[in-house]
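Summary for the lay section of the report: proteins are chains of building blocks that fold into shapes. Here we show the chain for Palmitoyltransferase and then a coded description of the shape we predicted for it.
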Amino acid sequence: MIPPHSPPLASPALRQWEEQGELLLPLTFLLLVLGSLLLYLAVSLMDPGYVNVLLQPQEEAKEEQTAMVPQAIPLRRCRYCMVLQPLRARHCRECRRCVRRYDHHCPWMENCVGERNHPLFVAYLALQLVVLLWGLYLAWSGLRFFRPWGLWLRSSGLLFATFLLLLLFSLVASLLLASHLYLVASNTTTWEFIASHRIAYLRQRPGNPFDRGLTRNLAHFFCGWPSGSWETLWAEEEEGSSQDV
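The coded shape description reads as follows.
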């Protein structure tokens, strides 16, 4: 029989846990999961940096600016979109659009990762890794090993399988985050890193013409500073290398 005054005791217990700060960690974990979900939706739904098919008046100046690039690297016109591709842009067959500073097409996001959403993608990887590591710790702390192993497997097998799954996802997220941080630090993209031998503006240069040093690369990637087109930067590097010669 349930005591008649047992329900009111739950409220003081919750208040006591809140005063002791024991509710802070679960709430923080839920906020991290919510933030990860919001970042996922932002990356998957936003414009990754599509090249406009119809040039707007303010973009005509950009096209004139790109014409200043040395003719050794002619700007290409996409054979699918028939638009003039800026440097570092590439056509995505899944999205059927050209994307500025194309990195890759993510099947899990169902969207391209490009100039506009790449910083949010890196932030999503970092936050997702924190959530996975936290869940990994919770799963490990709940495991209690004892014999016989058959009885332990029946009582803790599902939790152990969850731990292994979280461990696998954590390793994948760690590798993805580390690789993207390396690419960001050197101001290159996944596509440029994999296919540099196929890209004209990289094939003719021994190094990365867009690398401005670690600090400036990170500042430009996350804050958009210093501003400027990739065509202008490439032309400046080309002039500097020709003067050195």
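Put simply, here is one thing we learned. Residues 1-11, 56-69 have pLDDT under 50 and may be disordered.
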